C-alpha cells in the first residue's frame, strides 16, 4: 500500500546552466556558470583574488557552455521523462536568456520563446512544470559590474526578471521557487550570490547583506505570484544537511545547535516566518558585526513579513557531524558542509556521507518547525557509471540509494509530515555544479559525453529508469 498521498509530485530536477548548453544562442548573455572553469578545482580557481571572470578557452574548459545540449534536444529528453511517468519536472529559467546582461529594461524575446516550448512540451505529457527562478546562474554582468547580491540594485533586476516569467507562465505553472539552495552561500557564495574573493566574499557581512537583499527579492516574487493568482505556490529552496553531534559531550551538542541555526535554519526561518529569528544578533556577533550594520529598511521588513513562502523546497544529499572538541581527527571529505566522519555512515565516491534516516529526521525537523508543506526537490547519488557495449548501465547502487531515501520519506509521511513531492537530482546526466564533471552522474538516463566534452550525446535509459517508472506507477509502493 502506498504511503504517499494521491497527487504526489513524482518527477526529476535539473538546472538550466548544467544541461541546456547553447550558451550563446537565442541572444543569451553570459552567466556566472558560463565563466566557471571545468574540473574539481573550479571554485578554488574562481576564488583567487585575481580571477577576472574573462573567458580563457586556452587555459580552461567550460563544460556548461555545451551542457548536454538540452537546448536542442529538450523534446527527446522530456519524452523520456514522460516515459518514466513524471508528474512534474523541476527546471530553472536561465536569467541570462531572459535578461542577457541582467540590467536591461526589456526581456529577450527569443529566451522567452525557448521556455514557452519547454513548458508546452511538459504540459503535452501532463507533466507539471516546477520552476526555479534562479539556480546558480545569474548574469555575469551582475557579478562583474555590480559586485553580486551585496548590491541592492539586484533586488530591482531580479524583480523584473521574476515578474516577467511569473506573468508569462502563471496560468500554466503552479509551482515556483525563488532561489536555489539560498543558504549554501554560507560556505559557497560564488554561484548563489555572485560573491568571490575579488568582490568581498571573505567578509561575512557581505554574505548576510546579500542574503537580506535576496530575501527581499524573494518576498517580491511571492507577492507578484500571489497578485497574479492567489493559489500559486511560491516556495523557498534550502540545502538541508541534517546535523548531528559526534557524541553526547554537551559542548558538541551546543555547537551542533549553533550550526543548525547558522546553516539549516536561518534562511528558512526568515523566508517561512517572514521575520529574522531571535538568534540573529548572536549569529552575526560571532563575525564581529550587528544586524544594525546591515542595510535594511522598515519597508523591506514589512514586505518580508507580508510575503512568507507557501512551501519549503529543499535538497538533501547527506548529513553532517559536528565535533568541536577534537575527539576525532577523521574529517569528512568532499562534503560542502565540512565536519567529521560519522562512523555509522558510508560515503559516495565523492565523499558525501549517505544517510537516508537523516532525510526522515530532516523532514520531521522542518515540519515541526514550520508546519508548511515540504517538497524534496533534490536528492540522489553522484556516481561513476559504466556503460556496456550494448548500452546497458546496471546502476544498482543508485537504485539502492534512492529506494532507501524514498522509504525514509514514507516514514516521515507516517510521522505526520505534509510532503508534496520528490524530484531526484539530475534525472538525466548533466554537468556537476561543484566539480564541472560529466563523470559524476546522477541520472536515470545516461548521456554519452565525457569530462573532455567528447561523445555522441546519445541518451540511454539506465536500469534505474524502469525501476523509477514502477515507483511512480505504484505511487511509491513498489520500491
Ligand atoms: C545541489 C545543486 O547543490 O546539488 C545542484 O542545487 C547540484 O545544482 C547538485 O548539481 C549536486 O551537486 P554536484 O556538485 O554533485 O553537481
TrEMBL record:
Its EC number is 3.2.1.-. The active site is at residue 378. It is an enzyme of class 3 (hydrolase). InterPro entries: GH, GH_1_N_CS, Glyco_hydro_1, Glyco_hydro_1_AS. The keyword Cytoplasm does not apply. GO terms for molecular function: hydrolase activity, acting on glycosyl bonds. Keywords: Glycosidase, Hydrolase. It comes from the Bacteria. Belongs to the glycosyl hydrolase 1 family. This is Glycoside hydrolase family 1 protein. It comes from Loigolactobacillus jiayinensis.
